[in-house]
Amino acid sequence: MTRAAIGVGMVGYAFMGRAHSQAWRNVGRFFDVPAEPRLAAICGRDEAATQAAADRLGWAAAELDWRRLVERDDVDIVDVCTPGDTHAAIAVAALEAGKHVLCEKPLANTLDEAEAMAAAAAAAPAARTMVAFNYRRVPAVALIRSLVAEGRLGEIRHVRARYLQDWPLDPEFPLLWRFDREQAGTGAIGDLASHIVDLAQHLAGRPIAEVTALTETFIRERPLPSGDGRGPVTVDDAALFLARLEGGAVATFEVSRLAPGHRNGLWIELNGSRGSVTFDLERLNEIELYEAGAGAPAEGFRRTLVTEPEHPYAGAWWPPGHILGWEHTFVHEVRDLLDAIGSGAPAEPDFASGLQVQRVLDAVVRSARTRRWETTAPDGAQPREGSVQ
Ligand code: SOE
Fold this sequence. Notes:
By secondary structure, the protein is α/β, with parallel strands linked by helices. Helices cover 32% and strands 25% of the residues. It contains ten helices and 17 strands.
C-alpha cells in the first residue's frame, strides 16, 4: 500500500538537526504512520555546509533563508532545530503560513516569545504544534506515565529530578552560543531544567505552581571561538530549585553542566502514597518500581526491562531484551506528531505545554534574582487557595 506523503522542512542541521533527520528518515520504516515524511528541504546560513548536510542527511533541497523554506508548497511541517533566539520568528511565520511545527526545546528564550508562539498556535487550530521534549518518548518514561495515571503509585507526593552534564568542564572550552544569553536565553536552566520540568509535570500529571531557586555561574569567561581573546559567560552553569505542584506534591530539581563524570545524567524519581518509581537515562531501558504491600521478604524495588511488545513504542522495534537508545526517542516523537496530524487530535507537548514549562523557567530565573518564592501564574497571582497545600 502506498502511503500519502507529507513534506518536512527543517531549519538547522547541527546536533539536533542530525537527530531529527534520522527520525524523519526512519519513522515510516518502523511505525505505521498515516503519512510518509518526504524530506523536502533543509535550511542553514552557510551554503556549502547546508548543501553538505542536505546530501549527508538525505534532504532533497537546501535553502539559505528560513522564510523561503516556510513558504515552500512542498513543506507541510516545519521542524525548528536552531538556537532559541530564532524559535519564535520561525515558528510564528510557519504557523501563519498554515504549517505544522515541531520546535526544539526550550520553546523560546523569553516568556514573551513563548506567549507569542502559543498565541500563534491557538490562532491556527488546524496546525499541530509540538515541543521536542524527547525524553517523554523513552518507552520506560512513557510506562511510568501510565503507571501513575492508573494510580499504581497512589497520590504523588514527591518528585525528585536532576540533569547533570560535564561537557564544558574545561575552562578552555570555547564560548559557544550556549553560553550567550542573547542566543540561548539561559544556560543549564533552558537546556537541561526544561527537560526535567517537563517530565516532572507530565509524569505527576500536575503543573508546578511556585518555585524558589538559586543559580550559579562558576566559569565566568571562556575563549572566543575565533581564538581571539576571551569573552564573558552570560548564562548559568547550574541551578537548584524547590517547587510546589498544584494539588500538593513537592519537588526538587538540580541541573549542572559542571558535574564531572555525568555525561548526560538525567534521573527522576516519584514517590506516591503507595509506591515509588525511578528512571535513569544512562539505563534508559529500565525502571525501578517499588509497590508497597508485597510484604517481607519480597518487598523492595524491582527492576523492569521495558522492551516487551506491550510496552509503549517497544513493539515496533526488536524482540524483548533488544534494547533501544537515545535516538529512538526522536523517532517516537515524530511518530506521535504524524499521528496527531493524521487524526486531528492535539499533539503533546504542544506549544501551550511548552509555554507552561517556560513559565516555570521564568519563575526560576526570577526567584534566583529576588531570593523569594515566585509563582508560575500568568498574571503573577499567588496560587489559588487550596490548590497548593
Ligand atoms: C546539551 O546539553 C544537550 O544536547 C541538550 O541540548 C539536549 O536537549 C539534551 O537532550 C542532551 O544535551
